[in-house]
Design a protein that fits this description.
Largest sheet: 5 strands, mixed
Bound molecules: glutathione
Radius of gyration: 23 Å
Shape: globular
Strand order of the largest sheet: 4-1-5-14-6
CATH class of the largest domain: Alpha Beta
CATH architecture of the largest domain: 3-Layer(aba) Sandwich
């Protein structure tokens, strides 16, 4: 046997052996900073019903808010240890890049451009959305195809603005975008009749519609003109914190898949299902691989409920928005949520 082949075999063996050794992860710099300040700093939307909004006592709620609460519970052991930084569309990426926030959890669409050019990494998808239109009922418009020559209100610094021009061109429609830096200005202009339609993510339309003086005076058109996978982002350069952020989101989805709810979580600690045991940390210590402890996922689910509970409470049946699960259902229930396994 030629020598080279022996040394190749040895090298191969060494690689396999190394792969079998699962060393505890070195906690990244961001995690150290969060721990030493005792708070997670989370960038959120200023006010978007169902995703991120503060009540009169300064209590924040919504899907994007719950994700940060679950993350804080996993890394700090306390979902209330979050400093909320409200950001508009224009401010959001600078706030993450400059280190003003640890994570941006603010209805932000994952696109190639953003993934490649912002010095940030998308953690995953919190809500699969798509862009739509809302029109005044009086106009009797029933399809976006009827928006030829219409003025459409839109916010700048969003994916929304470009999708609108793409859609107009593709459908040979003359649409006049009326662009505003602030969302209140865009919706204000729509409600005062300066625009025939307002366009944004369908979830945002639903939020705007329920908040309108007379919701039923506004019609959401059937066309969905884009893919808007919305999810959190972290700064590049800290793989450990990136991993923690991804796995907290995965844990919320797997929690739903394995029937772990806020209410039954403690009972489930005695489960003999190895999948549940790994999630709850009652057998192998999965948390150590992330630089956390055994109960990281238990605490995340305990704090907010599983993904399905977060969805229903904030944007689904238990909320004024009444959005359907649709794509945001589990892969084995007709949706596309498929979390890699906690294993
Ligand atoms: N998903 C789109 C749109 C996100 C977005 O910023 N939408 C607007 C309209 S719902 C918004 O949240 N505005 C609130 C603000 O800027 O304060 C994106 O990532 O660009």
């Amino acid at each position: 046997m030629p020598k080279i082949s022996v040394s190749r075999k040895l090298a191969g063996f060494a690689l396999c052996a190394a792969a079998l050794l699962s060393l505890p992860a070195h906690a990244g710099k961001t995690l150290d900073t969060i721990k030493s300040r005792g708070q997670l700093v989370c960038g959120v939307n200023v006010a978007l019903a169902g995703f991120s909004a503060a009540d009169s006592n300064g209590n924040w709620s919504g899907m994007d808010v719950d994700y940060c609460k679950a993350l804080a519970a996993a890394v700090l052991g306390d979902a209330s240890k979050v400093k909320w930084v409200p950001l508009n569309a224009q401010q959001r990426f600078t706030a993450l890049q400059s280190g003003e926030v640890d994570i941006l959890s603010r209805n932000t669409t994952w696109t190639l451009t953003r993934d490649a050019s912002l010095g940030a990494n998308f953690v995953g998808v919190m809500y699969y959305d798509g862009q739509g239109f809302m029109v005044d009922k009086k106009l009797k418009v029933t399809s976006a195809k009827q928006l030829d020559n219409a003025t459409v209100c839109v916010q700048s610094g969003t994916t929304t603005e470009k999708n609108l021009t793409d859609y107009a061109r593709a459908n040979n429609l003359k649409i006049k975008p009326l662009v505003f830096e602030k969302n209140e200005a865009a919706t204000g202009a729509y409600h005062s009749g300066r625009c025939q339609a307002y366009t944004t993510d369908a979830s945002g339309l639903a939020a705007e519609r329920v908040a309108a003086k007379v919701p039923d005076d506004n019609i959401i058109l059937p066309e969905i003109i884009s893919k808007e996978p919305l999810g959190p982002l972290v700064r590049r350069g800290d793989d450990e914190f990136f991993a923690i952020s991804k796995w907290v989101l995965n844990a919320l989805v797997e929690g739903e898949e394995y029937g772990l709810t806020q209410a039954n979580l403690d009972e489930k600690k005695t489960s003999t299902d190895p999948n549940i045991q790994r999630i709850l940390g009652t057998s192998e210590d999965m948390g150590a691989l992330l630089g956390l402890d055994k109960e990281w996922a238990y605490r995340a689910i305990k704090a907010t409920g599983n993904y399905g509970e977060i969805f229903e409470r904030n944007v689904g049946k238990g909320s004024p928005l009444k959005l359907e699960r649709g794509l945001n259902n589990l892969w084995n229930k007709g949706g596309i949520l498929y979390a890699p396994p906690i294993r």
